[in-house]
Amino acid sequence: MQTLLPPVINQALYFVIFGAFIGSQIKNIHGVPYMAFIVPGLVMMAVITSSFANVVSSFFGAKFNRNIEELMVSPTPNWIILAGFTIGGVLRGILVGIIIFIVSAFFTHLEIYNLGIVITFIVLTSILFALAGFINALFATKFDDISIFPTFILTPLTYFGGVFYSIKDLPVFWQNLSRLNPVLYMIDGFRYGFFGASDVNVAVSAAILVGFTITLATIALVLLKKGAGLKT
pTM, whole model, 2 decimals? Predict the structure, then answer.
């Protein structure tokens, strides 16, 4: 009720408002019905927010209640601590994504062009933002700190990541600016798995996603080893 249902309700509202109402005016984007076009973006948006929120809230909650200290003084390796919290975020993100995909069947028919690419992008994206949530929680000192990044950085990046539009329809300047947004590559690569077409080369999108994931994992392990945000 608290972790799976709210994002599903939010995305269902997007289906109704953007898909049914606005989509009836837009009709299609590059030959794809608008309702179908936005499904991968909405699924990925929910995966991003859910995987991030799960880890940042659970790890900061452990810090706030000071029971994280018991884990840190135990012989548990840092990589297992990181993996444990990350897997929790990944599972929540993927479960939410699957439920929203099922809900989308009530609004449009969607076929999967390449299941391997769909799975790769949804798993890597959920890992990436679970790691981001972990790093956010490390530095957070109060509950307000865990909402700053999602509100002022994550949400704008997601909305400007091509969820509701194709960057090919933008002026050249905005197309180039959009390419600086890492979320674009996640959504675009995920969308390729459904339609077999993308605004960016899918291999480039996958490489960028892998690069960000490895970088954040390394940063998280280094911070955890130093006890950043954990020592008082």
Answer: 0.92
